[in-house]
Known about the structure:
303 residues, mainly beta, ten-stranded mixed sheet, six-stranded antiparallel sheet, 37% strand
Amino acid sequence: MKIVKLIVMVLLVVSIQIPANVEASNSKDLGAANEETYRSNVIPDRMEPGSIIEFINETEFVIVIGGLGSDFDVYSDKLSVKEYSDLFGYPSPVKGLIVTYADDGLILDLFYPEGETNPLMDFSNVRHFFEEDFSRNSVQATNHNLEGYLCMVSSQLASWGSYPNKLYNCTQVLPICPSSHFDLNKNSATFEISANCTTTQLLRIGAGRATTFSDPIGQANITLKKGDVATKLSYDNVAVGKILHVRTKTKSGTEKTVLMTKNDAGGMPNAVLDIWKTGVEYWGYSWSSTFSMPNKVTYMYYR
């Protein structure tokens, strides 16, 4: 489980033009001269890359590092608070909430003050999508290509964040006969193509943004290492040790799939997957504490 303590040592003063829907004020005395506060009753979707903000109450925040950015809060002048929350799934701000932003300017993580529970990490909010959950609110489709996988039937289970991030169930029916050592999870299955039998495969597919994390210990007290990933706790808390087929573009622009292991789960307000630190090196990138993958990431595993 992702547990991180963030200690902020320096408050930076920023001067920036304020959008019409965000109100700036110097009325709060926070112990720092000329420190501006910004009124917002939602968590901003984006800031300048690498920014850190802290809410001083439920409707005001200060910028600790970085700035608002030229496209700050592009949705809030078009959506009500409820519409904003329903669309992205971000929790409401609380006093002491610290929000960090990645190098693409989108939300990286949420850090709640002591005594406050992150709603995205609350096990009472975890949803379990069983086979019967081609649910009432899902979008179903048949015989189509879904994120590179041919699905006889598919169902969208969840969507969250502004990226956006999506989760699907997919059923494949293939004209093949599995061999006696058929093992999809180990990626070592062999098949015999035949018109006399079919193989049904149940897939879970996630597609969207991938961020990175550096926690030393994951779920089940597992020491995390290169090749480990975290899925979103509230929607896809699959068993630890599950093999995921993770696909995205390399730094040189070619598609590459890497087998990675789910050994943690996180809140991930605007990401479908969290890659542990140096795992990004498989695609030719270098890890930093604010790094997020620059292209859409897809993962798949066999249910």
